């Protein structure tokens, strides 16, 4: 038995060691190949969302062949003058500009076309309009649009994923209530309290655990999707923490269980856990679209390597990284499938709390291990034994899951009791 545990330890140690040590990219430059007709031109690739860094880059690099990936935060029509000055600086440093399809842009920038400037390229031999240009890299480049444009309004993909999470969650819970013969009138208040607990708890959790300075610097942004720090601005909520959402959901569900549906809270938690696992996967996919919660730098030859040109500078240099959002989303999706199978095909749903305990253990274990691949989220002011804030906060939830599974034996009910009409 001791040999078995030793082997498990070695496997885990090898896994963590392989992923924990970050690849280094001097100067924040990755490498690729610019194919111009039949010629292969090795290029250094650079990208940043920081205007100051982008503006300074032409004077800081001595490489002959360089490709700079521009994005919307660099060249916004609302800030045309500053964006145009940057383009002029690159032009004076012998850079050429291309759109997203690598078509040469020879016309001056205007407010109408400045967002078409996608690449700035400097090469030993100038590229002509008739040249066929493509970029090849050993890693993938994830540079999506912000969302779906509906006239003057843009439906952001992150918001869409959040809507899908709650929409599908509602449909799934409706199905669960029908299976358990629960009056549908209890679904609306559950949805309302879940929504309140998720949004408010996630926001407060982020501010308390990662950005407490907001209470002093921009108090209203803690509770409202606005910023008043540099003038009034609608920003949306830019920080949500799953630990905070979980704590808030525990309390709102207790209220719902005792005051509204009048069932054992573990009965409700068992079913909410199924929905939350699926919703969590959609939220992490939304993070992927937003190029946030990115992973640590990884070798460009890794099959997981992805460059996020739109990533915030708070994560460090814009270089190939692990898609930690997708790892987490895959874990949550697998958890949803497991919980749904156990709910539908076994009697575990009658052992109130068992499914919820399992949900807690696996969900937070996924979070714990994926944290080894993530860049820190804000200020990591809770660090114990080399573990970051997210990992430290996950441990109590995993322990709670084990305890809940053990005590769930005391809360068994029969199928008849479960499906007893109101």
Automatic annotation (TrEMBL):
Location of this chain's protein in the cell: Cell membrane
EC number in record: 2.5.1.145
Enzyme class: transferase
InterPro entries in the cross-refs: Lgt
Coiled coil feature spans: none
Membrane topology, record value: Multi-pass membrane protein
Binding-site residues, a 1,2-diacyl-sn-glycero-3-phospho-(1'-sn-glycerol): 284
Role according to the record: Catalyzes the transfer of the diacylglyceryl group from phosphatidylglycerol to the sulfhydryl group of the N-terminal cysteine of a prolipoprotein, the first step in the formation of mature lipoproteins.
Stated name of the protein: Phosphatidylglycerol--prolipoprotein diacylglyceryl transferase
Species for this entry: Chryseobacterium vrystaatense
């Amino acid at each position: 038995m001791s040999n078995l545990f030793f082997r498990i330890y070695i496997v885990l140690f090898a896994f963590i060691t392989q992923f924990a040590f970050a690849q280094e990219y001097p100067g924040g430059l990755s490498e690729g190949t610019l194919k111009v007709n039949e010629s292969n031109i090795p290029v250094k690739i650079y990208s940043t969302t920081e205007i100051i860094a982008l503006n300074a880059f032409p004077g800081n690099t001595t490489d002959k062949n360089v490709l700079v990936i521009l994005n919307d935060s660099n060249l916004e029509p609302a800030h045309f003058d500053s964006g145009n000055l940057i383009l002029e600086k690159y032009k004076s440093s012998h850079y050429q500009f291309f759109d997203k399809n690598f078509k040469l842009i020879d016309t001056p920038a205007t407010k109408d076309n400045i967002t078409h400037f996608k690449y700035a390229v400097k090469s030993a031999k100038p590229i002509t309009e008739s040249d066929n240009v493509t970029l090849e890299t050993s890693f993938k480049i994830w540079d999506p649009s912000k969302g779906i444009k509906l006239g003057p309004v843009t439906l952001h993909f992150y918001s869409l994923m959040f809507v899908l999470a709650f929409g599908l969650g509602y449909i799934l819970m409706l199905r669960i209530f029908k299976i358990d013969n629960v009056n549908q009138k209890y679904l609306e208040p559950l949805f309302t309290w879940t929504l309140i607990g998720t949004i408010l708890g996630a926001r407060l959790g982020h501010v308390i655990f990662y950005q407490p300075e907001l209470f002093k610097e921009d108090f209203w942004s803690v509770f409202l999707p606005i910023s008043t720090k540099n003038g009034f601005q609608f920003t949306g909520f830019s920080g949500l923490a799953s630990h905070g959402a979980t704590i808030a959901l525990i309390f709102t569900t207790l209220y719902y269980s005792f005051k509204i549906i009048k069932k054992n809270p573990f009965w409700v938690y068992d079913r909410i856990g199924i929905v939350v696992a699926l919703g969590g996967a959609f939220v992490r996919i939304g993070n992927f679209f937003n190029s946030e919660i990115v992973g640590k730098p990884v070798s460009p030859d890794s099959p997981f390597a992805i460059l996020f040109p739109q990533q915030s500078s708070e994560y460090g240099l814009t270089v190939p990284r692990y898609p930690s959002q997708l790892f987490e989303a895959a874990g949550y999706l697998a958890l949803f499938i497991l919980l749904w199978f156990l709910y539908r095909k076994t009697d575990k749903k009658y052992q109130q709390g068992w499914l919820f305990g399992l949900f807690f253990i696996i969900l937070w274990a996924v979070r714990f291990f994926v944290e080894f691949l993530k860049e820190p989220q804000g200020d990591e002011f809770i660090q114990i034994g080399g573990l970051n804030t997210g990992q430290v906060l996950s441990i109590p939830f995993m322990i709670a899951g084990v305890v809940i599974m053990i005590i769930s034996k005391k809360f068994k009910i029969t199928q008849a009791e479960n499906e007893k009409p109101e």
